[in-house]
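Wait, mind explaining this?

_____
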Amino acid sequence: MRADLASGPLVRFVVGEDGTATGHTAAMQVGFMELRSHRVATDPVGAQRFDDPAAEITHTDLAPWVPLLADDHRWPIAVAVPSCRVNVWERTEDRPGVAWLRDPLSGSWASVVPEGAGRYVVRQFGPRRLWDAAEAAYRWWQRRGEPPLSAWEWTITPDRQSVTLPSGSGH
């Protein structure tokens, strides 16, 4: 299974009599190279300014590093914000640490930069408010007890595919 923001869970499916396949992650993670026909065009940060004046500015108290870089933490964001890519710049003498979310399909982007004292400046641009969606998904996951990736359930039917966190899932 793969999402643009997170990849790696290997899912073992069991097919029922009605043809519906359901599964949960195996204990290992995997990675695959996409076929050219499956690749989404890359949208590198490049010369993009994290402090672009055209962006809408808000603030958050959620440090972006763990939600965007830890596998179990990143999965609910990957499900909530399909096609989103992440890039994290380490702090240098010339700039602060910056967390980027980018959606190459809509052209939307968000940057999250430390402001001080546990507060972060969020800049968002484009039709999708990527950080708002990422933060909402992360906090939703936290309210459910931060269940591991293995708690999620994948379902495939002849006409749809879904990934859900069944109620009661958690530690």
Residues 130-143 form the longest helix (14 residues).
